[in-house]
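Subject: Sanity check before I submit

Could someone independently write out the structure tokens for this chain? I want to compare against mine line by line before I put it in a report. The sequence has 120 residues.
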Amino acid sequence: MNKEIEKLMKTLDISEEEAREIIEADKEIDRGAKLFELSDEQKKVEKQMRKTVKIVAPNGKKTERPLKIDPTRESLMQAITDALKDRTDAITRPEKTTNTLLLDIGADTFKIVVSKIRKK
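---
Independent answer below. Compare away.
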């Protein structure tokens, strides 16, 4: 006997045949079959639940970790900024990033991303 069937039999206190019927019905529903009609109120709830998306960290909490500042990268970013200061209209660093520079030259905007290659 299948473990899933055994679990259903134990938790729902049903026979083996009833457990097999439940599993078959679940498979049909997964394939898109409608075994029963929902009321209007249930349809509204179903639609609402399909729209809901929860973005949660794997540990179940919403967390924001602080940015790690690499002193070598910071000095390199400062050197790039100093070198290109005369050639650009504006140099900006987006919030919540430590490795990106945006350069405005005329009507164009360019992006420089400084990334460190990790050791293998």
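---
OP: Matches mine. For the report I'm noting this point. The first strand starts at residue 90 and ends at 92.
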